[in-house]
Amino acid sequence: MKISFNINGQPQSLDIDGNTPLLWVVRDILDLKGTKFGCGKAACGACTLHVDGEAVRACSYAVKYANDKRITTIEGLSNGDELHPVQQAWMEEIVPQCGYCQPGFMMATAALLEQIPNPTDEDIDNNIVNVCRCATYYRMRKAIHRAASIQSQNTKTQTS
Amino acid sequence: MRKNHRTYLIICFVIAGLTIGFSDPKDAPTELNLSTSDTRYAELTPEKAFDLMMEVLTHKRCVNCHPADDYPRQGEDSHIHNFGVQRGPDNHGVAALKCQTCHQDENNNYSGVPGAPEWSLAPRKMAWQGLTRVEIARSMLNPDNNGGRTLEETVHHLTEHELVLWAWEPGVDANGKPREKPPVPKAEYIKAVKAWAEGGAPIPEQ
Q1: How far is A126 from chain B (nearest CA, A)?
Q2: Is residue A73 within 8 Å of residue A34, measured between CB atoms?
């Protein structure tokens, strides 16, 4: 079936089996390798990307549901050369160790900050449930608070 | 040698033919055979209909998403849903971890994640976990609990809502194992709900 969507600001149109997981479309057909395969059963969150601004686990999302949607992967998180607050914070707090799970965490965090701009630790506990085997969780928590602060400063700068 | 080989093949085919010919397709269990041969579904009084209906509504495929607290249940043992998912402000999860983060409109048999339209928790007022079948039925008919539905609207929901009917097509889990369906076939369940409602929706004492 023909499926059309916007990915990272670019229109895309594919003729494909509609039940193909979006993860494989993103990685194998569109060659965007930032979104990772971790478990294939929506348990780890490594495949998290955005569909119309909402966090979605792409390994369990048939591409047919992406028709006419706006997809954002980790490659599309920044605004041109301007880093997203999450990316900036992740660098400042030196979060990654092996790095494999990080795109999923960053996309989940970006989705969280869209809806809860200043999350508490409890909000982070409730919303960010991806799995990291290198146990960088404590640095992630710091980075999430830092990202919220950067985002808040950016918002103030834009409105002033 | 060639003649013996041909003879051997002929004997094999005869044996195969006899085996297939004497096998009885009626031995293979089918939903249709269960419903036509099971006397439980004959002579459906409203009281019997209630029993059949509640066999379904107390099944884990239903109760897993009608919890009494803020955590869906999952699996055949109805353990608390993995990964810390929770009800959220509108029964659809929390900001970055909504039901639709993983669950879509159909089962995903690649990942083992079940799906149906409007996948979410039933509101707290429709909690069934821990209730007896009588308590569930009374709650179901109480407009304060059931979202203001009339009996007719309740019957419509119970017999036509895709999320309710998902219970008979629950897909497979992450290991490829089919989920257990309710103990009453779908067609018989629907007949039972309607027969119960048409008979005045009686609820027994126990």
Answers
A1: 7
A2: yes
Which of A132, A100, A127, A133 lies closest to A114, judged by CA? A127
Number of alpha carbons in the 13 Å side-chain half-sphere of residue B150: 2
Nearest residue to A58 via CA among A43, A68, A48: A48
Which of B27 and A100 is assigned the larger pLDDT?
A100
| Beta-carbon pairs below 8 A across chains A and B | 72
Helices A137-159 and A102-115 cross at an angle (nearest 10°) of: 40
Q: Name the strands in the sheet holding A48-51, side by side, starting at the edge strand that comes first in the sequence.
A: A10-15, A2-7, A70-72, A48-51, A54-57
Count CB atoms within 10 A of the CB of residue B86: 18
Q: Which of B92, B97, B107 to mutate to test the interface with A (most CBs of A within 10 A)?
A: B97
Phi and psi at B6, nearest 5°, equal: -65, -40
Chain A residues within an 8 Å CB radius of B172:
none
Q: State chain A's maximal CA–CA distance in angstroms.
A: 49
CATH 1.10.150.120 for domain A85-159: yes
B169 pLDDT band, cuts 50/70/90, is very high
The answer to whether the beta carbons of residues B67 and B85 sit under 8 Å apart is no
pLDDT range class, residue B46, cuts 50, 70, 90 = very high
**Which chain B residues are Cβ-neighbours of A61 within 8 angstroms?**
104, 108
CA dist A97 to A85, A134, A153, Å? 19, 6, 28
Q: Which amino acid is at B64?
A: N
Q: What is the pLDDT of residues A72-85, one digit of tens each?
A: 999 999 998 999 99
Give the minimum alpha-carbon distance from B68 to chain A in angstroms, rounded to a whole number.
Answer: 19
Q: B30 at the A interface (CB within 8 A)?
A: no
Contact A88, A64 (CB under 8 A): no
CA of A110, closest CA in chain B: separation in Å? 9
What's the pTM value of the predicted model, to 2 decimals? Answer: 0.84
CATH superfamily of A2-76: Beta-grasp domain (3.10.20.30)
Cβ atoms of residues B151 and B193 within 8 Å: no
